[in-house]
Amino acid sequence: MKLDPTISNYAKEHAKEFNLFRRAILRYDRIAIFRHIKPDSDALGCQFGLQTFIKDNFPNKEVRVLGDHHVTLTPRVFPNADKLSESWFDEPFLAIVLDVGDHERIADPRYKKASYICKVDHHPFKKEIARHPINDEKMAAASELLSNILLSWKGTTLSKEAARYLYMGIVGDSGRFEFSSTSAHTFAVAKALIETGININSIYLEMYEKKIEDLRTVAYILSHFEVSPHGVAYYVLSDETQKELGISREQGKENVNLFSNIAGLNAWCSVTEDPQPKDYCWRVSIRSKKLDISGIASKWEGGGHPQASGAKVRSLDKLPELIKNLDELFI
Ligand code: AMP
């Protein structure tokens, strides 16, 4: 396949890091791929895209995928992760950490036992865990960056199955090519992935399929949301309400984009109670039309991207303060 210059020029500019990454893959026969906790389509897409690519091109390597499940995406759209015993990690292996900047959010701490760690990501990071990381915050998705690395790897092929996973990652994190992080590079990579023969119609059907019962959740949200003076919309789903609606916390959160594209709204948030005893909190998923909300998310035990970030409040009494912080951005 002849590569679009947008892809090949980027690969040339980053040839040194890309080669170190590829050499690490060639050097190890046992590879474990890690993602962030509470995975989304990008975390899952780049992980399974890379696993499939390595298996297709280097069938003698053992490649494992680690991390917690997603309530609707696994195993419906992406396979379940592997369950590995402690002894697996006693032999030398390569850890590849994908789509996670904050090392505390890596879904399985056993990446620390690796002989060598690689990382491919598009998040801001606090502490670097890899010697030669490949990081680019301008990429709409980690899957976009990884696709460039794999597409420009001479002598290998990117199968339709690997391309399908990577495409789903890009679609997920770019909001179906809508967020401002979407660039000419995003489209060049998407074109190359489509040229492998993937069926994008069935991809969208699988990724965004909803059940009739989900409409009850939408009805609840639309009759209970609030809007701050300067256009921050938010809705709150307590654990009790989630149970009444028969949904998980993640399913509640996934409706946050009901409020995108509404005139007069500058940002919108879902606030969902997460009752797990070890980290009891109300998780706030924040999305913004234009301004960067990631600084406010960082102030509230979170982080993320300029237009899509996550934060936490430890009690609902604190929520008005977080909403006020957001509201003041838009005065
Ligand atoms: P979410 O609202 O959970 O879909 O997350 C949106 C973006 O913010 C994703 O890129 C997450 O990786 C990031 N994010 C969510 N929660 C946190 C957190 N507590 N700390 C750092 N980043 C987060």
General description of the model:
The protein has 331 residues and is of the alpha/beta class. The protein has twelve helices and eleven strands. A six-stranded mixed β-sheet has the order 6-7-8-9-11-10. The termini are far apart. The structure holds adenosine monophosphate. The site of adenosine monophosphate (AMP) has 12 residues, from β10 and β11.
**What hetero molecules are in the model?**
adenosine monophosphate
Mean pLDDT metric: 96
Compute the CA-based radius of gyration.
20 Å
What does the oligomeric state look like here? Answer: single chain
Which overall shape is indicated by the principal axes computed on the Cα atoms? globular
Summed up, the helix count is 12
Brief synopsis:
The protein is built from twelve helices and eleven strands. It has helices at residues 5-13, 15-27, 41-57, 142-151, 160-173, 184-194, 200-208, 214-224, 239-245, 249-253, 294-299, 319-329, and strands spanning 30-34, 62-65, 94-98, 116-121, 134-135, 226-227, 232-237, 267-274, 281-288, 303-304, 308-313. The strands form two sheets. The protein has a six-stranded mixed sheet. It has a five-stranded parallel sheet with strand order 2-1-3-4-5.
List keywords for this structure.
331 residues, alpha/beta, six-stranded mixed β-sheet, five-stranded parallel β-sheet, binds adenosine monophosphate
Topology:
Layout: H1 5-13, H2 15-27, E1 30-34, H3 41-57, E2 62-65, E3 94-98, E4 116-121, E5 134-135, H4 142-151, H5 160-173, H6 184-194, H7 200-208, H8 214-224, E6 226-227, E7 232-237, H9 239-245, H10 249-253, E8 267-274, E9 281-288, H11 294-299, E10 303-304, E11 308-313, H12 319-329
Helix pairs in contact: 3-4, 3-5, 4-5, 4-6, 5-6
The chain binds adenosine monophosphate.
Adenosine monophosphate is lined by residues 36, 102, 285, 301-305, 308-310, 312.
